[in-house]
Amino acid sequence: MALEYCILASGSAGNCLWIRGGGVQILVDCGLSARRIADRLAAVGQDLRDVQAVICTHGHGDHVAGAAALARRYGIEIHATAGTLRHIRGEPPPERLHTVDVRGRFRIGGLEIRLAPTPHDAVGSCAVVVADGDTSLGVCTDLGRPTEAIRKHLEGVDGLVLEMNHDLRMLLEGPYPEVLKRRIHGDLGHLSNEQSAELLARVLHPGLQHLSLAHLSEQNNLPEIARETAERVLDDAALAPGLAVAEQHRPGQPVRLETKRRGQLALF
Q1: Count of alpha carbons within 13 Å of 235, Cβ hemisphere only?
Q2: Phi-psi region at 11: left, alpha or beta (left = phi > 0; alpha = psi -120 to 50)
Q3: Engineering a disulfide at 48: which of 22, 38, 147, 204 sits with its beta carbon 3.0 to 4.6 angstroms away?
Q4: For residue 88, what are the contacts with CB-CB under 8 A and spacing of at least 6?
Q5: Against a cut of 0.70, is the pTM above it?
Q6: pLDDT tens across 139-161, in order?
Q7: How far apart are CA 167 and CA 221, in angstroms?
Q8: What CATH number does residue 86 fall under?
Q9: Per-residue pLDDT reduced to its tens digit, 217-237
Q10: CB 100 within 8 A of CB 93
Q11: Domain containing residue 24
């Protein structure tokens, strides 16, 4: 078998990624309302009632806003670090909450989940790798700088969801207050396009089948700038994985990874 996934929403107004593999369906982050998540899943032919669990990468609202409702209304299990669980509002059923270590490994059905800490202004923030034994998907957003630990964590993944939050010039010349600008491009903020390109160059390998550029700022970035930045890295490496820019207001194209690491990407 192989992983299938779809970015349902990506950006500061809400993040949510659907994954199917290992006999289960999960979400990574749930920063939309339960109703909107259900609608986005329905738009790509899936059903929220089939989802067993959510992994929340950190406690900011654009990543956990729907957690309580998903646990309460749908019985979905919530897996997150202790720091993240403290930021979930709405009184989710305690029996649905599962504390995980920021450097931990655990299983959901036939999926292995591996976490690694990210430098971000949220306690317990982490990057995620989901693996089914045949293929793996790395999810890395909301970090202020690339680190060696993150590079190692993402090594060899077949699919990659990578933050390209802002164009530094657009951010610095834009209308945001100075304190917010400093937060975004600081070491505990978000990756610029160039920082993301640096990390991509370090984790890129011939077996990477698909790359999704995620968490783009609607005010401080443009999809074409992010795509061109990533394409330069891919061209320099003479590699051509599938490439997509995730959107905030509609789900992306679902992706199915191939079990052969150099296989062709399947879209469905």
Answers
A1: 6
A2: left
A3: 38
A4: 56, 59, 64, 67, 68, 78, 80, 97
A5: yes
A6: 999 999 999 999 999 999 999 99
A7: 5
A8: 3.60.15.10
A9: 999 999 999 999 999 999 999
A10: no
A11: 4-267
